[in-house]
Write a structure and sequence with these properties.
This protein is of the alpha/beta class. It contains 22 helices and 27 strands. The strands form six sheets. Strands 1, 2, 4, 5, 7, 8 and 9 form a seven-stranded mixed β-sheet that branches. It is globular.
Length: 635
């Protein structure tokens, strides 16, 4: 199965499509299997139904179960007949009964059954919150779009704008296809009238409220084009209702950047064909969705556009590191890192290990002074891994801050160049340069750095070796962690079921997640269980321990205090158990409020600790890495 390279962290958008939305179930399942992680979701019309369930934490199996319980015909309920029709109205109803409901009550059907069904499904997914479910109870950022007739504009419901309003009310309003359904509250109709593909909800937000990812993965539906077999007023109204749902998609796509479309064919099924939705038709639509998504990811390199100008801007170090780790899939000749400090070493350690284990030349330019207390340890680590380190007299001697990736294929040359901040209010950290148009600029950057790099030594630099080691040393060093040094604490290495894990963070960083697959390959090459105690042999003599995930046992559950990214990777790959350091008997308070492990998402945007953790308290943080890798452990 093809695994995504571009959508490990992305924004999900689901088009309107009436009863055809069953196809989204198959597409969503295939996306999850391919490694897609949605940080935020949005939907219009029937896409709003899918978005709301995903926002409540629905898995692909949850969506399948929900569809299996659904009688599509029940959605097309009897209209709510409240209008006073009078004598002439009754006469019109006798002669034209098929049009009376539209004329007097503005729609052929009531959409109340949609609201009821959504309420029931949300209650299954979220049994604890107060019912009916409001937006502030959803697990992930979710946007539902409808058309507000009274204001002639799109109405957007979300956790930010309408936290206390009911999700089912928003979905019902978003699904009210004009003519087919009555307006909701005499005000709202289908969101597809103004925005059938509501990716606009992720644009134009303030920097502090920027979307949690940059790429948008949009799921759309396309019915076969066919001439109507019959023509008349009723057929005209039916086609008009379908056009209101499907229309405008191409225009909206032309106005948005970085939106990548998974187009799903739906055959001869139209948006309002609720009466045709037999179990067989539903199953076929689900299969169509799965096939379309599978094809998309198999051809991802062809279908995904080049980096947009907006995506090339890095607002923080997480975006910088994500662009660096995207190159892990490429055959490389060289990597050059130039910076004012060595803070990046720990964050990119798996990448450094991967590069050096493959014999890739890595150059680092750093000032001789200016690092934090453990800066000297990081520099020793770089040298021990075989990184060619050049130390310059001071920070001003560093030509520029940059990561330059030199692949064997010159067309894939890439540089992430730091932007010198002119004021505290400046929010841009770096810019990405890549592709044919940027080749000359990148080569000029590389040449500038080369002038400061010392000649490469004649003696080959050491290659790090990944091996089994460090068990006893690891357990002994963990006892120096403040919370684990007290009497009654037990520390052991055990197999832990992934389903029994609880997380302290709501988000894991995309750049860390991208590196885990390569770490897993090293374990599998040695036939080692994931993530048993291992070490990286340096210089042939010294070694650096690779710490397994650390969990604290409480009531049969295991709280992840270290290694959330590795655990999330295993969850997504359906790996049932992993080796962890299990600590029992801890009485100290946790540094943040635990969250269910199935709610953890991958995020590419730089977030502060207070945004990634709920009620974060740094004073309660466990200094595990400092204990396992003391500053004097490398000579």
């Amino acid at each position: 199965m093809a695994k995504t390279s571009f959508f490990k962290s992305c924004l999900g958008v689901f088009q309107g499509g009436g009863c055809r939305a069953a196809a989204f179930v198959g597409a969503y399942e295939e996306a999850i299997k391919s490694g897609v992680s949605f940080t935020e979701v949005a939907g219009t019309s029937a896409g709003a139904i899918v978005a709301s369930l995903i926002g409540a934490g629905a898995s692909p199996d949850d969506l399948k179960d929900a569809i299996s319980r659904l009688d599509f015909n029940s959605f097309a309920g009897e209209p709510d007949r409240k209008a006073t029709r009078g004598l002439w109205g009754k006469i019109f109803g006798m002669h034209f009964p098929e049009y009376a409901d539209l004329l007097f009550d503005q729609g052929f059907h009531s959409s109340l059954h949609i609201k009821t069904w959504v309420d029931e499904e949300l209650a299954r997914l979220l049994p604890n919150p107060k019912h009916p479910v409001s937006f502030n109870a959803l697990r992930f950022p979710t946007y539902i779009v409808s058309t507000d007739l009274s204001r002639s504009e799109a109405k957007v419901w979300s956790q930010q704008t309408t936290p206390n309003e009911l999700v089912s009310d928003a979905v019902q309003a978003s699904c009210a296809i004009p003519i087919f359904f009555q307006p909701v509250g005499k005000r709202y109709v289908d969101g597809a009238v103004l925005s059938n593909l509501p990716a606009f909800v992720f644009r134009g937000r303030e920097n502090s409220d920027r979307a949690l990812a940059s790429r948008v993965l949009a799921f759309t539906l396309t019915a076969d084009q066919a001439e109507p077999e019959e023509w008349g007023t009723q057929k005209f109204l039916e086609l008009l209702a379908n056009a209101l749902v499907d229309g405008g998609q191409q225009l909206q796509l032309s106005l948005l950047s970085n939106v990548h479309v998974v187009g799903i064919p739906t055959g001869n099924i139209k948006a309002t064909d609720f009466s045709k939705m037999t179990p067989e038709v539903t199953s076929e639509l689900i299969q169509n969705g799965a096939s379309a998504a599978r094809s998309f990811f198999e051809q991802e390199l062809i279908r995904v556009h080049h980096t947009t100008s907006a995506e090339s801007v890095c607002y923080g170090t997480d975006e910088v590191y994500t662009h660096v780790t995207e190159s892990l899939e490429l055959p490389l000749e060289r990597v050059v890192v130039s910076d004012h400090n060595s803070d990046w070493v720990y964050s990119l350690f798996p990448s450094l290990l991967c590069w050096r284990a493959k014999g890739v030349r890595v150059d680092a330019l750093l000032p001789a002074l200016g690092d934090k207390a453990d800066g000297q340890y990081r520099r020793k680590l770089l040298r021990a891994m075989g990184v060619h380190l050049t130390e310059l007299p001071n920070e001003t001697a560093v030509p520029l801050r940059a990561f330059v990736i030199v692949p064997r294929d010159a067309a894939q040359l890439r540089a992430i160049v730091g932007v010198e901040k002119q004021s505290k209010s400046q929010t841009i950290e770096a810019n990405l340069y890549e592709g044919f148009l940027d080749t000359y600029a990148i080569r000029a950057i590389l040449e500038q750095l080369n002038r400061s790099i010392e000649p490469y030594p004649a003696t080959p630099l050491s290659i790090p070796i990944f091996e089994r080691d460090g068990h006893d040393v690891l357990l002994a060093r963990l006892k120096s962690v403040g919370q684990y040094s007290k009497p009654g604490i037990e520390v052991s290495i055990e197999n832990v079921a992934v389903e029994n894990l609880i997380s302290l963070t709501r988000f894991v960083r995309e750049y860390k997640y991208r590196q885990i697959g390569h770490l897993v390959q090293l374990y599998r090459q040695l036939n080692m269980p994931l993530f048993d105690t291992a070490a990286v042999r340096l210089n042939g003599t010294e070694s650096s321990i690779v710490t397994p995930p650390v969990v604290e046992e409480s009531g049969g559950k295991f709280i992840l205090v270290e290694g959330s990214t590795r655990a999330t990777f295993c969850r997504d790959e359906r790996i049932s158990q992993i080796k962890c350091i299990v600590v029992r008997g801890v009485t100290d308070a946790l540094p943040s409020t635990p969250v269910p492990f199935n709610e953890v998402r991958i995020v590419g945007r730089t977030l502060a600790a207070t945004e990634r953790y709920e009620r974060f308290n740094y004073e309660r943080f466990r200094s595990i890495e400092r204990a396992v890798h003391p500053l004097d452990s490398l000579t």
